[in-house]
């Protein structure tokens, strides 16, 4: 059981041991409910047919929400990024999950991602703005540039700003982060 927990992302040997020992102390009904939930999630959760976010139904709750149809579409690499943006409670539009980033070194080209459905969706749903919320990496930049070129004929394409995390010190920031923070500066009102 410890070995299985260690295979999970972010779980080291000590945490795996704590989780295993915790489960062994739980009543059998709770352990069975946990196991049943894992098996049910694996068999029932798929992708939303519109945005490609994780969903147990053909359309996810976000796509079903009529109030979110405001002409904005936020493009993310995977569902973890979507969930992070949702935690802010700031963005009120829809999403599109690419399923990764363009990475020729890893053999991932545009045809392996949900890019064509994105272009079709932007065209058919008359989006006014597409916000690219992709990571500040070589792959993220490559994917952003590729998508911007494809989507500019249909609507405004923007990209989220990059900069310094709250509470950080300038002296410890790398040059790229500082440069992006300067580029993404805003006027103080």
Quick structural summary:
With 189 residues, the chain is α/β, with parallel strands linked by helices. It is built from 8 helices and 6 strands; from the N terminus they run αααββαβαβαβαβα.
Helix content: 40-55%
In terms of structural class, how would the helical and strand content be classed? alpha/beta
- Our count of helices gives 8
H/E series, N to C? HHHEEHEHEHEHEH
Strand order of the largest sheet: 4-3-5-6
Shape: globular
| Average of the residue pLDDT scores | 92
Care to describe what's here?
The chain is α/β, with parallel strands linked by helices. The protein contains eight helices and six strands. It has helices spanning 2-6, 13-25, 28-44, 61-64, 79-88, 115-124, 138-151, 175-183, and strands at residues 46-47, 54-55, 72-76, 94-97, 129-132, 156-159. The strands form two sheets. A four-stranded parallel β-sheet has the order 4-3-5-6. Strands 1-2 form a two-stranded antiparallel ribbon. β3, α5 (79-88) and β4 form a beta-alpha-beta unit. The radius of gyration is 20 Å and the shape is globular. The mean pLDDT is 92.
Give structural attributes:
189 residues, 4-stranded parallel β-sheet, alpha/beta, 8 helices, two-stranded antiparallel ribbon
Task: Itemize the secondary structure elements and their pairings.
Elements lengths: L1 H5 L6 H13 L2 H17 L1 E2 L6 E2 L5 H4 L7 E5 L2 H10 L5 E4 L17 H10 L4 E4 L5 H14 L4 E4 L15 H9 L6
Parallel strand pairs: 3-4, 3-5, 5-6
Antiparallel strand pairs: 1-2
